[in-house]
Amino acid sequence: MTTPKTLTADDSIRTWLAHPVGGPILREMLAQGGQDADVLKPVSRFAIKRLVKLSRGSFSEEALDALVARAAAGEVPADAPPAPAEDVVEEPAAEVPEAPVVEWEERITAGRFTGKTIIVTGAGSGIGRATASRIAREGGRVVAIDVSQERLDEFVAEHPEAQITALTADITDDAKVAEIVAAAGESIDGLANIAGIMDDMTPIGELTDAVWERVMRVNVDGTMKLMRAVIPHMVARGQGSIVNTASEAALRGSAAGVAYTASKHAVVGLTKSTAFMYAPSGVRVNAVAPGPTITNIQASFASPLGAQRIRQAMAILPDAVDAEALAASITFLLSDDGVNVNGVILASDGGWSAT
Questions:
Q1: Which of 87, 190, 207, 329 is a Cys-bridge partner for 348, taking CB atoms 3.0 to 4.6 Å apart?
Q2: Predicted pLDDT of residue 255
């Protein structure tokens, strides 16, 4: 019998879950937090040490060290949840080393947004926060919008030297939209429409009015209202860039429930129509369609049919990426580097749309 390898923090989550010692320890830890190994599938190829950053504090360096130490000591918890069938692998005749994952590193372009004012919605977390952070670190003035004052305060505290105007606002409220534009001032160079919500994966036969109206109000009405508010300022100056957030659900029918899918198709329509109408005025309008991304937007399944169909489609998902990877796509389109790009729906999805 082959002795199982000694696990380290550099081994992938997939390797840990398949390991006869590491798997039970990791599943026990997840169960203590009310979760199972399915929550780690989108990041299974990542080194387990990445969980320290991805968990934003809920899984610490100390917890990682303790996990590695327990695995090295061979402590197999007796009451750990059993491994799913797909995690049980036959012992190979000879160990085949797993190919290392080359991790992308964010590279800041100094001064790319110097002198520019960019409104970023959803700036308190996830893709919005990563985008606002990158713009600020590249010299821009950020008007950071979120519904959570606490999250905005945390974001501002992380960038003490940056030019950030933070405003708590609901983007579906006309009065708040007016406040956002006033806070930005006359020179609005860009708008990153990133705030959005997920649906509950229901198909149309089970859809409630409440879910439909809430998703449409935030994802479509909010996006439209901010676009409508900034366009006159951009047209008056003869320049401006708007980047909306679509989704893989804007490109296919198998990524979400009907409300979210319809809302993101609507965002594509808003993007393309506005790009066409205002191209002669010097305004560019594009959208990014993210694939699996690590954000604070959680998917929930209110429908057995929706859960079955969507999970079936998710079998071909590429690995999830950090929000910073989406920020790289968004800031490219926002910046002057995207000068010749207008009316495009950029699938920033790790190749999911190619399957």
A1: 329
A2: 76
